[in-house]
TrEMBL record:
UniProt-recorded Gene Ontology molecular function terms: electron transfer activity; heme binding
Entry's transmembrane regions: none
Species: Acidovorax carolinensis
Listed name of the protein: Cytochrome c domain-containing protein
InterPro entries: Cyt_c-like_dom_sf
Entry annotated with the keyword Signal: yes
Length: 106
């Protein structure tokens, strides 16, 4: 029995250590990527706050494809009102941020 417990613990530890930091998105990633420059809770005329984004995304929370949809929206090139920072997000960073926003951006 002790061997099974040790094996299970080893598997969990290995999985935890191998997980990408981006997969554990949080406000730290938003700070690192410069997202707070436009999406902080302070007023910015052209960008919703993270809380507003989370509130807007709440209706899709738990839906199949919600994360993929938000990720593609984050990275979508726009002809008018280009958002260069969004366009330069890697797929991994955009996915992590989308997951964080869908989880309520806490």
């Amino acid at each position: 029995m002790a061997h099974a417990h040790h094996t299970a613990l080893s598997i969990v530890l290995a999985f935890t250590l191998s997980a990408s930091p981006l997969a554990q998105a949080s406000s730290a990633l938003a700070v690192e990527m410069g997202c707070n420059n436009c999406h902080s809770n302070t007023f910015h005329p052209n960008a919703p706050s993270f809380q507003q984004l989370a509130d807007q995304s709440a209706k899709r929370r738990g839906e199949t494809g919600a994360e993929d949809h938000l990720m593609s929206e984050l990275r979508k090139p726009r002809l008018v009102g280009r958002i260069g920072a969004h366009e330069h997000l890697s797929e991994e960073s955009a996915r992590a941020l989308a997951r964080w926003i869908l989880d309520g951006a806490h």
